[in-house]
């Protein structure tokens, strides 16, 4: 059920018009994992366009340090 709640929260964020203006790490880190996944980054088109470049360790997630280079 917890995964379902996280998925629904992510869908709600992605469908929100405010989500596309989101530039705050904590706002984009919907699941509170301390990283931004590609799914979470998809809420911000500009961030998504730079995701691969910013993901310097290639793990498919952005740390706060990697995000700060945006």
From TrEMBL:
This protein's name: Calmodulin
InterPro entries in UniProt: EF-hand-dom_pair, EF_Hand_1_Ca_BS, EF_hand_dom
Domain EF-hand: 42-70
Keyword Signal attached: yes
Keyword Repeat: no
Keywords: Signal
SUPFAM superfamilies recorded: EF-hand
Signal peptide boundaries: 1-21
């Amino acid at each position: 059920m917890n995964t379902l709640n996280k998925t629904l929260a992510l869908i709600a964020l992605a469908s929100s018009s405010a989500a596309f203006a989101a530039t705050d790490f904590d706002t984009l880190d919907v699941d509170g994992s301390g990283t931004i996944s590609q799914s979470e980054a998809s809420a911000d088109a500009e961030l998504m366009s730079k995701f691969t470049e910013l993901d310097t360790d290639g793990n498919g997630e952005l740390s706060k340090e990697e995000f700060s280079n945006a």
